[in-house]
Design a protein that fits this description.
The protein is α/β, with parallel strands linked by helices and 423 residues long. It contains 19 helices and 10 strands. The chain has helices at residues 45-55, 72-81, 94-99, 104-108, 126-137, 153-158, 169-181, 201-213, 234-237, 245-254, 269-277, 287-291, 293-297, 300-304, 314-328, 339-343, 356-366, 373-380, 386-389; strands at 31-32, 61-63, 86-93, 117-122, 143-148, 187-192, 219-223, 259-263, 282-285, 420-421. The strands form 2 sheets. The protein has an 8-stranded parallel barrel with strand order 2-3-4-5-6-7-8-9, surrounded by 5 helices. Strands 1-10 form a two-stranded antiparallel sheet. α5 links the parallel β4 and β5 (143-148).
Amino acid sequence: MMKSAGYTLIASYTPIHSVIPKSVCRLSLNVLIPIKSKATSIPDYTQKNVMVARRYRPPLFSVAPMMDWTDNHYRTLARLISKHAWLYTEMIAAETIVYQKENLDRFLAFPPEQHPIVLQIGGNNLDNLAKATQLANAYGYDEINFNCGCPSQKVAGHGCFGVRLMLNPKFVAEAMSVIAVNSDAPVSVKCRIGVDDHDSYDELCDFIYTVSSYSPTKHFIIHSRKALLNGISPADNRRIPPLRYEYFFALLRDFPDLRFTINGGINYIGEVNSALREGAHGVMVGRAAYNNPWYTLGNVDTAVYGASPSSITRRQVLEKFQVYGDSVLGKYGDGRPSVREVVMPLLHLFHSEPGNGLWKRKADSAFRNCTTIKSFLEETLVAIPDSVLDSPLVGVPPDHEDCFANLQLPPPYKETEQEVLYA
């Protein structure tokens, strides 16, 4: 039996004795053999996807992994608002997991209510990726995602991973095979549409083709901008490169056997449904789900998944969050997490509502003297009218029928089966 945060899984796969899976063989000519070969010892990943699909609704809507934002505290709030949205961890470096193996709960544990949840890991060392995935496996994540999209200088620059790995699809394929063979969960890749001058549609297709052909990866989350590695900030990398949604929808056409989730520039539920109508298998939303969680996440279950409307109010959400928050304060010693750290996701719960500005000013003051989440809420919620606290979410979000219409898709990709050599 495997350790898990909330349930147990039966480990039924073949024990792994090497970080290099047997179906990815190094020949004397240094050739990488496609995983489509009949001789394979890698488990049936289609079956893995089926097992997850039976437990949860499909990832039509997911919240993007965001450093310093999508921590346990935010994910707890998000799950209180939406029961069906797929949640992602922050990116966790494989080295962090390996070198903190005596303190894993701090980085990997989560309440069982957070399912379905995806662990995103990053790194460029196969040994550490294998060890990290093995260690994370006991926690029962529903998918393992590999970061090939982060453009920050710390990650893609000095760290030489993140989006820089898109320049080496052969390594990504090997890394995904290593991750998959060491995990009981399905695997996926999150990437951009290109890097610097390597931004043609064919180059993106070469990346997708190589990774999917030479590893078990069948799910790609595509941030529909390229990344610029010239020292600009991650914020500028979300703003300066133009969105090229036509690349994403062309991938749906050219790789019908794969699953693609669209990401980048999507802020409204109407846009989410528009992308799904146009054929996207899923939509990933980032900052809109963090900066306006009530109206973004609050509409996911009904407008995206067709669930019955919920009568939950923000007061009820906060009552449940308070129980969680007070149970984790100081859990890891040295006052961590602090009241400020636990409460940060709540500061956007009243976005654009009466009293929101006063609530945030009171929060700044309360951080200096409150030692519990209960006392923090008692001191600050006087700023919010009862009509806001006690009203369930009502209304249907406006539709965005034309936001992905009339895209001029690039010409179809013509794949060529060829030997893929190690770089």
